[in-house]
Amino acid sequence: MDDARLGAATEGFFSGAEGTPIDEAFNLDVAELGRRYRDRTLSPAEVERGLSARIARLDPELGAFTALAGETARAAARQAEAELAAGIDRGPLHGVPVTVKDLCLTRDMPTTAGLRGFADRLPRRDAGVVARLREAGAVLVGKTYTTAGAFVDPAADRPFPRHPWRADLFPGMSSTGAGVAVAAGLCSVAIGTDTGGSIRLPSLCCGVSGFKPTYGRVDAEGVFESAPSLDHVGPIARSVADLAAAMTAIGQGESRHPVVDLAGVRIGVDRHALEQTGSKNRGAIERAVGLFGELGLTTVEVTLPLVAELLAATGRLQAWETAKVHAPWYPAHREDYGPGLAATIERGRAMPAGDVDGFEEVRATYRRQLDALFGVADLIILPVLTIDTPTLDEWDGAMRHADPLGARFTKPFNVTGHPALALPGGFDAEGLPLGFQLVGRPADEALLLGAGIAFQQASDWHRGPPRALS
């Protein structure tokens, strides 16, 4: 975008004017936003004011937010501006607007976990990931919608967020608000959680990029648990470069720069898995494989291990762990729980502890099988869902069936802790987003993110703005 066009766009953006094109005003990635902060052509305080106006205009219809930081965000933006002017640079997220899922404890906003009984819960302390964001100078503008307890039921007393591309489409769950907020240009980075696909599913549905890091890579302390053995915390953003920037701030341990030389990298394709997804997303994966080939990656045929036993054992473990998490409130406050979460808790409460004794053996077996697969491939490309993005009505119908949306492609990597990256992969005939996921070796996130960055440098599908916002 040239400076004249940017200036015209941001003039409307900072005044909160109606009709400002989203692809003009909100197409700055984290690195470009940072450059403009540092050369003083934009300021964090201006961006926060303009973003607040945009949220006020769009979010009553979208429903991405459960709480807004208000004056706390304004103060953080002013502080970031003053620090940068004084030569104090906290890194790539300094002054950048971010959100966190309404599972993360925040000292200045309630944390409801989508449950009615927690509506007034103000913990007055920050989760570990929130503390890291603040230390990095990020401007926390608000908290985003989660389904009840990060499970399948809608949050209590709140309408389900609207899909930013087409109102009747399912926007994904349980990090629903995070995906919607990023796609609609209401933040640069959104922190979500993923227990069985809850970062990758909204990313696919909303046409944005989402990263489930290696298990434990991002501190989960102070994040309301769903099933602790499976829970991951990670970012959603427009681009993989923005995800990588976020990981430098929130990741524990040493951060490696994304790999830039992909020559000879092997990408595994499971043809049988491709047959188990919708035709639109299958086409997106086939196009992506071709583009990765042009980037120098070598395609190898692989066969994923069978997942039936793993998913059955994981279902038992998840029910048992979820029941333990909710024991302080359930069944005493049964009326605050939706039917899906309540059924899972009841299943867990009825289980003897011995029902999960064999889980670690099943997990270890599956990990060994994946280790063998990663001996012949460096990355694996997979669908996120077994179907194309459904409408809300189709989702409601599908929820009555076991494993309707293909946990077989997402949950196994929550069990094993492998990092997974959801990427936009084009558009269907109606202009709606398609996508896929890449899976990498544990702790080898530099290669995974590097491949995603290279893919997006060679394509522009991640830059397509929703055209349905009104």
UniProtKB/TrEMBL annotation:
**One GO molecular function term?**
catalytic activity
Q: Amidase domain: which residues?
A: 51-449
Any stretches that span the bilayer, and where are they?
none
What the entry lists under SUPFAM superfamilies is as follows:
Amidase signature (AS) enzymes
Q: Name one Pfam family in it.
A: Amidase
Protein name (record): Amidase
Source species of the chain: Rhizorhabdus histidinilytica
Upper lineage is: Bacteria, Pseudomonadati, Pseudomonadota, Alphaproteobacteria, Sphingomonadales
